[in-house]
Amino acid sequence: MSIKISFKKSVFNKTSSNLVLFVDEKFNTKLIKKYLSDTEFSYISDLLKTSDLNKKLLVFNLNSKKKIVLVSIKKNIKNCEIENLGAKFYGLINYEKNSEYYINSESLINTHKNFIGYFLHGLKLKSYNFKKYKTKKERKSLTIRVIGKKNIISPKDQLKFRALEEGTFYARDLVSEPGNILHPDEYAKRLKVLKKYGLKINVYDQVRLKKLGMNALLGVGQGSIRGSYLVTMEWKGSKNNSKPLAFIGKGVCFDTGGYSLKPAKFMEDMTYDMAGSAAVVGLMKNLALRKAKINAVGVVGLVENMVSGNAQRPGDIVKSYSGKTIEILNTDAEGRLVLADAITFTEKKFKPKFMIDLATLTGAIIVSLGSEYAGLFSNNDKLSKELINAGKKVEEKLWRMPLDKNFDKLINSKNADMQNINYVGGAGSTTAAQFLQRFILNKTPWAHLDIAGMAFSKYGGALNSGGATGYGVRLLNQLIEDYYE
Predict the structure, then answer these.
(1) 423-448 pLDDT per residue, tens
(2) Looking at the annotation, which residues are catalytic?
(3) Torsion of CA 307, 450, 417, 327, to 10 degrees
(4) 2-153 belongs to CATH 2.60.40.10
(5) Which of 20, 160, 477, 481 is most open to solvent, judged by the fewest CB atoms within 10 Å of its CB?
(6) What is the share, in percent, of the chain residues with pLDDT greater than 70?
(7) Which helix (H) or strand (E) element contains residue 206?
(8) Superfamily the domain 160-483 falls into
(9) Contact 111/91 with Cβ under 8 angstroms?
(10) 228 pLDDT tier (thresholds 50, 70, 90)
């Protein structure tokens, strides 16, 4: 659906079509009477007596050409709650082929800064869909006309919302692409285009990676006819040479499991095994678009985990970029191998203030937390608290999980420095994080976000209609805004 939004300070014409008005949580209509005709007001007042006032939005069909939507606002409403109201509003009208709505900002009963901005932001985030490969194009349009003197969104906030939307949508687009289109070669090619936003892009291909000794990452991709890459994206928005904030993403463009083959059922969903990298890319695009006043670097490892005569075998031993050796007991525990080299490389090359990696790493985290929280593992309490607080603000929630040296014995190998899975069983997500922690060589503050349950939604969420969620872009942007910018 195409959406057109315009702003006018003019007084609303009562004869105009569909109207959105704001009321308090008790649906008190006294303050909106002046925006309705006497007949309309009487009709709505009668219907409210038998309506479910626990709903946040109520729709009244006055005739075939006019609707009144009442949106209730509670006291001390949070930004994320306003976004959810905008998303709910979009959900109510999404079935309409072509529609026009007037949002009367004069009916706002509180002085919440930027209410209209957050309301429209939620509406636009909810409106996303991926229909690039549909041959029959949908011809639906929505026109929003925001009227009244309370509709002003500052240029700075307009840029903020637009950057977040574009960053989130870009992440969703990447995750939604099929594996035959967005393979590592194409992914690396697309990232080069981000130079136009002011990002410094550096693509390390297989030749360069081999020279660097990134054998853990290369081992994952060696069974594919496609190349393997490490791509760095640098944003320098601070005038000083302060240490950058580092974000690292797992970019397994398709994951068969390798010789430790996944079951056929739902293997088609393994196109989203690169969602961690997509979140990093979307974040970096967002930071560049809004000219964030920080230094940041995004690092993504791009591979395809396939089965072939050249694929990695269970039992192989590889030497990582860190110099540590890894015994591959399960080729489907591949994401941690990609991240291992990326983490050490990022720490060594950029000497960042902190490192946060994102990955659809384990099915075990879905068993633990379902699709409500991402798993947070960290060596730093301060960074953990900041991430959790930022997640609450944008409803991209995190739950901290344990790390402990006692888990190390589960990934110690008889034949190498470590093995890539815990063969004893249990604590799958923790031992994966414990594995990653071994590749931090200089005690850099670090957090690992296991987003396997959050990156893709079969049934949709508050701000998405199903499919790729773009989880992580808004969370990390909020972290930067609140604590580092």
Answers:
(1) 888 999 999 999 999 999 999 999 99
(2) 262, 336
(3) -10
(4) no
(5) 481
(6) 98
(7) helix 206-212
(8) Zn peptidases (3.40.630.10)
(9) no
(10) very high
